[in-house]
Design brief:
Elements: H1 36-49, E1 54-61, E2 64-72, E3 89-90, H2 96-108, H3 118-121, H4 130-135, H5 165-171, H6 190-203, H7 207-219, E4 224-225, H8 258-261, E5 264-265, H9 267-278, H10 292-298, E6 303-304, H11 311-314, E7 319-321, E8 326-330, E9 333-342, E10 345-352, E11 357-363, H12 368-384, H13 390-412, H14 426-430, E12 434-438, E13 442-449, E14 452-457, E15 464-470, E16 474-479, H15 482-485, E17 490-496, E18 502-509, E19 524-527, H16 532-537
Antiparallel strand pairs: 1-2, 1-11, 3-5, 4-5, 6-7, 7-8, 8-9, 9-10, 10-11, 12-13, 12-19, 13-14, 14-15, 15-16, 16-17, 17-18
Keywords: Hydrolase, Signal
Pfam family, one: Beta-lactamase
GO molecular function, one term: hydrolase activity
Length: 539
């Protein structure tokens, strides 16, 4: 689940010393304008400014990995081992380029066309609007302009969800459209899960096997895998708020989210992936994994995006999304990039194709500002030989954001003088107890435990929390797992019929994590009874 920045004490200068040495030989040189000292200084400044335990950085230039370095440690625990070039990180949405590339392989084989209708390959495919279902193309799965809202369906993928891919696809028709088809960009993970299911449908193999064998293994990516790490694997990073306890292989559930964000990879593995992409799908040893025509199709703009706030400073005049990649102009050059955030980790991959340069950044801290700072700084050095202070820029922006959030919480937030919590009697609490069912997320239960009202989601290993009452049937749910879910506390507004009976609820996130898409939930009360055993199991 994407979590917002959680501030902790700044590390002492002695604790941010370089903990590992470069791992790549420097047979070729760094891009003109970029030096090892500039990289080291930038990464360590960002690591301190944003309190990041560990970072791995690699640079590819002119066909060679010219820099690969680990900084800091693998976990929040200060006694954890140092990061190196083979440390596994969750790369999150940088998985999307693998899923898009897997589809490109099927296009190359003549099994698929980008403009094919999805229902011609998946007859059971459905979205909320029948006319859109009939016209939904394979390319529409990848470009984030379906008309669904930002992060629609993410609660089936994240927040401890145990929903399988078939169950997730069954929820797709209930996703509301918030804009006309193909008119407005809104980032969407759910449709990449559909894209993964399409890969499975056409190959007869799991998405995991296709990506592992035909992309990761075929390209020879070291320390890279399409499945999460399991007990016994060493050299694995732990993200912010995560326990670091790896599951047994036999008990591991394949996550539904995998085609949108399930790959784990080292910086050495991602650097070789960058080499392959920069050379039009050909590995350094000459193997053609996918064609240059496919690479060019993936890197072509297909959906326009608004310009970022930084556009003037980076001389950016357009921004677009291709198939699994963002692209823009950057100081006169084309820049192709993508980020990824999952399991308390953030990744960033960026290319300047005309300069034959690629940069990979992997971190184990749930804050995109660190990766944005490093990626923009190093890309600017490679493109122009100089860079603005992007670390200060995003540090200042983050401070402003936190100050505004704190002010709003103190003045109008739950528990503030303007919105004080109230105490409900046992009989008043009983009005809300029962089972509620949402069309796409399934059952949600409200129970009493001691003096508290409790909320628990089904099909989730641990998404449960305590409800605190505000006036007018409004509550705040505070999730039990503060490390992973604390930023996703939400308002819960119960609804009554004309007789005064509670008949349903709606939810709104208090914070700004778009992947907790509570606003799309419309649970209706289906029972006034509840078994406490269900909450304990989280099913």
């Amino acid at each position: 689940m994407i979590q917002r920045f959680r501030h902790s004490c700044m590390m002492a200068a002695s604790a941010i010393a370089l903990l590992s040495a470069p791992y790549a030989t420097h047979a070729a040189s760094l891009p003109p304008g970029l030096t090892e000292q500039a990289i080291d200084t930038t990464v360590e400044r960002a690591r301190q400014a944003f309190d990041v335990p560990g970072i791995a950085v690699a640079v590819v230039h002119d066909g060679q990995i010219v820099f690969s370095h680990g900084y800091g440690r693998r976990a929040e625990d200060k006694a954890s081992a140092p990061v190196d070039g083979r440390t596994l990180f969750a790369i999150g949405s940088n998985t999307k380029e693998f899923t898009a590339t897997a589809l490109a392989l099927l296009v190359e084989q003549g099994k698929l066309g980008w403009d094919d209708r999805v229902i011609d390959h998946m007859p059971d495919f459905r979205v909320a609007d029948p006319s859109i279902t009939r016209d939904f193309r394979v390319s529409d799965l990848l470009t984030h302009h379906s008309g669904m809202g930002l992060g629609a369906g993410d609660l089936m993928l994240f927040s401890h969800s145990t929903l399988t891919r078939p169950e997730i696809l069954a929820g797709l028709p209930f996703m509301p459209f918030t804009a006309p088809f193909r008119t407005r960009y809104a980032y969407n993970n759910l449709l990449y899960v559909v894209a993964g299911a399409l890969v499975e449908r056409l190959t007869g193999q799991s998405w995991e096997d296709v990506v592992q064998k035909r992309l990761i293994d075929a390209a020879g990516l070291p320390a890279c895998q399409s499945t999460p790490p399991v007990k016994g694997q060493a050299n694995v990073a732990t993200g912010e708020g995560e326990s670091g306890i790896l599951p047994d292989r036999a008990s591991r559930l394949l996550p539904g989210v995998a085609p949108a964000g399930g790959i784990w990879c080292s910086v050495d593995g991602m650097a070789r992936w960058a080499q392959t992409y920069l050379d039009g799908g050909r590995t350094p040893d000459g193997r053609q994994v996918f064609s240059q025509a496919s690479r060019d199709a993936l890197w072509a703009p297909h959906a326009l995006l608004p310009l970022p706030d930084t556009a003037e400073a980076t001389r950016t005049h357009f921004r677009a999304y291709g198939y699994g990649w963002f692209m823009e102009d950057f100081f006169g050059y084309k820049r192709v990039w993508h980020t990824g955030t999952i399991d308390g980790m953030v990744s960033y991959m960026t290319f300047l194709p005309e300069l034959k340069t690629g940069i990979v950044i992997l971190t184990n801290h749930d804050d995109h500002n660190a990766t944005y700072s490093i990626a923009t700084t190093l890309s600017a050095y490679a493109a122009t030989g100089t860079s603005a202070d992007w670390i200060a820029h995003w540090r200042d922006a983050e401070n402003v954001e936190h100050a505004a959030e704190a002010k709003a919480a103190a003045s109008t937030g739950p528990g503030s003088p303007a919105r004080p919590f109230i105490t409900l009697s046992e009989s008043a609490q009983q009005d809300y107890v029962g089972t509620y069912r949402d069309d796409w997320r399934g059952p949600i239960t409200i129970s009493r435990r001691g003096q508290d009202l409790r909320m628990a989601f089904s099909h989730a290993d641990g998404l449960s929390g305590t409800l605190s009452a505000l006036p007018h049937d409004l509550f705040v749910v505070r999730w039990d797992d503060r490390g992973q879910d604390g930023s996703d506390d939400a308002y819960v507004q119960f609804e009554r019929d004309v007789s005064g009976k509670v008949v349903g609820m709606s939810m709104r996130l208090i914070g700004s994590d778009f992947s907790f898409d509570a606003q799309d939930l419309h649970p209706k009360k289906v029972s006034s009874s509840f078994s406490g055993e269900k909450e304990a199991k989280g099913r």
